[in-house]
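Entry 12.
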Amino acid sequence: MTNLPITHLTLYKHGVGFFERRASLSGEEVELSFRVEEMNDILKSLTAIDWGGGQVLGLEYATPQTREERLAGCSIRLGDGRSLRDLLVGLRGRRYQVKVEDERERRDGVTPAAQRAAAGSADVVSPMPGTVVAVLVEEGQPVITGQGLAIVEAMKMENEIRAPVNGIVERAAVVPGQGVAQHDVLVRVGPG
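Predicted 3D structure (tokens):
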């Protein structure tokens, strides 16, 4: 393992310092030593560059904290018994982005809806069990990608189900008040 010497140091009057370490390396690892109380600031500002055209693949550091102590510092607390509920409560009022993958999409790399759309029509299905609150389209109506088709309530949350493709509504398969299972067809969108 190679140690990098400090080659440049700039201290600013407000107490912040800039340290540059450089050296020619022959190994695959570099070790830098910092005091434990400095790690938070170091991790916020550390930049690692391989000037020789290589690639920095990762940074690793030991922590004196246990997993529980690290998690205690997080702003969202998850309990052992109700972790999904605790997560949803912890996210309340925050802005977040969620990507949900269908296991067939992950396995095959192509969504079933995209396969049907390529064949000429797309069955829009309920992503979860719930109750249909509203059907926002009628048969024969043109729709565009992203347009709301139906609203399904699940776990006291309303979820707007959107069109995956441009087209014409061929069939509305549900009515308001109807219970649906996961993957039940809500609307079929055909070419148009």
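Annotation: Residues 83-91 form the longest helix (9 residues). The chain has three domains: 1-64, 65-98, 111-190.
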